[in-house]
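re: ur question from yesterday

yeah so i grabbed the chain u mentioned. its 184 aa long if i counted rite. heres the sequnce exactly as i have it in my notes:
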Amino acid sequence: MTRGSTLPAHPPSPLSGCLAIPAQTRVSRAPLLDGFNDAPVDEALRTLLACLRSPGWARRVAAHRPYPTLDALLAASDEAAYDLTSADLAEALAAETLPALPDDAYGAAHTALGAAHAAYEARFGHAFVISLAAVPPDERLDHVLEGIRSRLANDPEDERVVAAEELRRLAKARLASRFRASGP
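ran it thru and got these structure tokens back, copy pasting raw so excuse formatting
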């Protein structure tokens, strides 16, 4: 038994067998990123230094403009952060401050965080850095306190590696926050 077509026959299109190639037009979906890409170098460096206080990192990221997407910028940020020298890392860490406590944090939390941070800074010689981008706001205080306490047990070289990774995450989160509002 043969089956026939259930759809009515249509004449072939005059374009049948031709490949459609969309026009190559640039549609700006990220005006803030476009502004960053087109900004003078000193302005781009200021933007980047607000995210991570390492001039070497900022120069490297700025030098690779323009970035077609936010993801491309974030990837470049990661790559440049992985290449931080010891001096770059020390400079970036020196400019960091302890994450702010929520406005409704109780007094004992301020005391505990201050004491833990003082111990950390005395041991490692720089501010404690931690990215809280993926941590819900109501868990941030506990996350910071637990992070400081657990990292106090690190030897200085291990902590340098952890701090560098946290700086990379911070830079990426700060860049994403700065440019995310401008488009997908």
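noticed a couple things. The chain has one domain: 31-180. also The first helix runs from residue 31 to 38.
anyway ttyl
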